[in-house]
Fold each of these.
Amino acid sequence: MSPVPNTTEIDGAPGAEQYMAPLPYGAPMELFVDDSKRVPVDDAELRAELEAELERDQAATWGEVCSACFCHTRRGYMIVGAHLAGIIAALYFFLFSLDLMGASAKVMGGCTAGALFGGIDNPIAGLCIGILATVLLQSSSTSTSIIVSLVGADAIEVQTAIYVIMGANIGTSVTNTIVAMGQMGDKDQLQRAFAGATVHDVFNYLAVAILLPIEAGTSYLYLLTRAMTPDTVSDGEKWTGPLAEIVGPLTKSMIIPNKDLIKEVSKGKSCSQFYPVECFNSAGNPTTDYDYTNCVKNGQVGLISCDKDSGDCPAYFQNGAVQSDDEMSGWVCFFLSIFFLVICLVVMIKILSSLLLGSSKRILRRATNLNGYLAMGIGAGITIFVQSSSITTSVLTPLAGLDVISLEVMFPITLGANIGTTVTGILAALVSSKATAMQVALAHLFFNISGIIIFYPIPWMRQWPLKIARWLGLCTRRNKFFPIFYIVFTFFVFPLTLLGISILWAEGIGNGTGNVGDQGSPGLLTLAILLTVALVLIIAYYTYQFKYGTLKQRYYAWGERRSRKNIAIKNLADDMDYIKQELITLGANPHTGYTGNDKAKVAKLPVEEEELDIEINQIEDPPEGVVADLPEGVKKLD
């Protein structure tokens, strides 16, 4: 059957295989039922069918949900219990993998990230350094704590720290984007998971695009938080979340990052000053008894430290190690964390798919169709509990890929996670007696609250992050490797480009003191202006071409050609087997009329002569009707 024009794919609909053709390039779309279903404008019957399906999904009652969840036979309860046990076990090691990834990232990039914080001198540089440092450290909490220590040491001002916090908000969303790539094996799951993950990135970038210029012009976050912060803050007891108690010991048995080293490097020290690693006993003599007292207090440690509470040193701690040794240990743990992460993700998806197999979609949708503000509160509560917004969104990303959680529900949960991670920062600030620590934490809180006020309560503003995230999800259908390009560009290339241009501006303008050496460079200033104009023109050109020109159509056409090529290569062996069988059938039919004149033509085909089971000399020229029935491409044997 030829592709049906301007149609979409409908799960479970009769003849669903007939609706696999994509929408014509540039075709308008009116109704988004969810992140994977599209309804073309000119297909009223199809639109009515999906609208009815959506109404049926919404028509499920909570009584039906409770009945489906809790009314089982004894065997049913045993099956559900076994699935839940498997999910809990996989979830534990999934959380361990995320914790290990963050710890190893701090060891791998600790010296580089620490050095980044030493070059902050303008808002754009602060934003970009916040993004890059958080991506390298895999933790916005660590970035925030470093910023607080720099502010407390008068290394940077609170106003500059606010821009770094904005960047850290963007950088922390890379983790769940990486997790979404674990569903690359299924294009439908990848599309939904990637859209659910990138809605976090999109919201953070849009919030920064609006609030950074406002803060640069008015300093409203600085003034608001300064008015709310007392001159001194009394010391409080440090609160450790339950997640650290559950998976922390296993991570600490392997590797423990030295956060104090990162803070010292950010204040101007060099990593080489902390090497080689040495352990001494109380008498000052070298010892092979490696523990916190001998190695940290009496000795010297590098990027890998020992546990202060238990006193034990991790498995990858090396006495006498140099910087390259610790960084190599960090890389090993990082790859181990990726391996465990993928395994646990696959296991969780398999178990969840098996558990939900046969469940009514309307029941699942009712169970997860939460009020937006309630979902926001749940996201904040979970994040406060686990002390990490990355963990909250990363755990929910596979559920979005399985279509258990819709994009409309994932969005407010993500916003709640942003609020929850700022509460964690406020609790950490209570430990310090410095008012600046509390001011930075409050600035982080009110930045996220401001973004939510702009993009969530107003329906048409709420659609901006959702539409962009949906489009990014659709891009993965055209090319499953699009997420890799997206991560590299969004979290590395773009911030590095902005950082380089901002440094040129700073060096070109100088610091304005008029002293020798501080007057700036006209050449660098000219280069900065040219690069800025070029960047603005490039962005404007491609934005216009994508919105009003042919760039979108050309990208979609390229993706479609690539997809068809991959499908053709994948099915090549089966197609050739089909052609062989058709030729065998054709040759075995005495009415085909082949003659010996076609022997040379047939011999060129990749078909064993004995498979034909006929004498090639007996083949005669086939009638036109027989040739017309053959697949395109085999009508012409020469």
Note: The beta strands are 29-32, 38-40.
Amino acid sequence: MCGAIGEFGRSLRRRLESGKQQDIRAKKQCLRKLRPTTTVSHLPAVRLRGLPFDCSEKDIYDFFLGFDVLDVLLVSRRWRFSGEAFVLFGNIGQVGYALQKHRHVIRHRYIEIFLTERKDYYQAIAAEVSRIQGDDVTFASARTVHPVLRLRGLPFSASRRDIVNFFKDFNLRENAVHLVVSAEGRPTGEAFVEFPSITLSKAAMNKDKMILGDRYIELFPVYSYLNQTSSSAFSSTDN
């Protein structure tokens, strides 16, 4: 989503619970420094490693206070927090500032910060959904078995139950719905929804532009990113 990054950045935030909405302007000098490594092929995100094992999303939002943080995804392995996380920002310029916090401290731990790519971020989402559903599977199998749709344009009052009802023919559970909210806890009008099969997620695309509440809902097939090999280009399907 990189022309999509603008749209992703404008609304996307905490599918899974927090984000920030201020507009931090990237300086031209910083962008020049970043140009060799941070291009539009990258999601505006970083990967953190070495986090305390009791680290919370709030700790990471506090660590990046003043940044336009849209999403924090804590990475678990075999039901335990791995000490890693992905942080998604509102624009690519903020990645450079985030990298400057490499080796800064969260509760006596030196935190390593690395560039990441969109495939890694979405694979982590797929693995987390798989974990929530009780399946201990690899990223590769999660990519195949658990297709995801992104919803945009939701009423700000929409709940998980509302979205389950919107997809009432698809036998979804509420924990398959991940609402995106800001750091202040305000809904952004976006959500991720995990379907039990590719067949069902494709069928669910027929509800694109249908109404929930008084809003037309846009649907985007995130699973198409997850199913690509690591060597293929990771391009958006929402233009």
Note: The CA atoms of residues 87 and 235 lie 20 Å apart.
